[in-house]
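Encode chain A's predicted structure.
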Amino acid sequence: MIVMSSTEEIKQTLARNYQFVQERIAQACARAGRSPEEITLIVVTKGHLVERIRYAIELGLRKFGENYPEEGAEKVEALSDIAELEWHMIGHVQSRKAEIAVRYYDMLHSLDSLKLGRRLERFAAEKSKRMPVLLECNLSGEETKFGFLASEQSRWGELLADFSAIAQFPHLEIRGLMTMAPFYEDAEKARPVFRKLVELQAYLRAQLPEIKWDELSMGMSSDFEVAIEEGATMVRIGQAILGARPRL
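Encoded structure for chain A:
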């Protein structure tokens, strides 16, 4: 009888989880008539120790997402010995933490106000860095969610001035949109939110064709398959791969 160490058990669990997620992505793509190559997997490391992230890196994963600028910055520093890692800030960024976001992250999914855009532009200019960003949109109307309020289609025109202003910042590059659906036990209930983001994307392509709107960051561990079926190009998956976050 072979007795595995806890480290080996964790690695095997992560490998199985990753394989299962890949299979689910492929199946969702097949249902939607898409290719898995169209989907960028962002592994969300919120609350996880650096050691577990290293196990994920051993599996070939290279794109990671963090919810809190400072927590992620510590992990970026701790893993700086590994080349070609890509770090995505996916959580809300307070204006006073914009410098951290610019310094440590390769892409920001959560640009949610013109004020934050101005701050990011200032720090990106200081670092001579051109930073890819996604504009976060609140499509559910939940007061607890951040993002440009876009729950009412009749008011989408009110977004255009701010989006145009952000597009003029020389050190920010708009790549598309991001949203978070409410958490539902039944992922199907999130479908209207994802569908609305695709509709907003089409609207913005028509109204602001000079801006690239190609990326749609939507879908997490609980609902990423539905998001892919509706058109997600980026999915943010944490627990389905890394497991439950440790209790601190």
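The chain has one domain: 6-238.
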